[in-house]
Amino acid sequence: MGQEQDTAHSVSGVRMQAVNNANQANSMATLLHDRLCQFPEIMFLQKVETNALFLTMPKHLIAELHKKWSFYFWNEEEGEIRLVTSFDTKEKDIDDFIDSIRRIIA
Question: For residue 83, which phi and psi values (nearest 5 degrees)?
Fold first, then answer.
């Protein structure tokens, strides 16, 4: 009986960690969205509901950002990209990304 309790407790802990990881990723996506809203040249294609953001930005901005940052092209021809946050995304990562945009636009 003790081993069953240990296993159940272990599974519960893993589930809780997964929930915490998802919450962190989603929180960082919301923060990234909020910070990106200051740039009129960035348009969101979908409402942010998870850790993925779908947006458009000018192609020259995408090209410059892609030299330093990893992200996915959703529709390269249209300038659509997908940004994804994860459990280990920190606020500083978002600040650095936003600073990169500011430097390119300036």
Answer: -105, 135
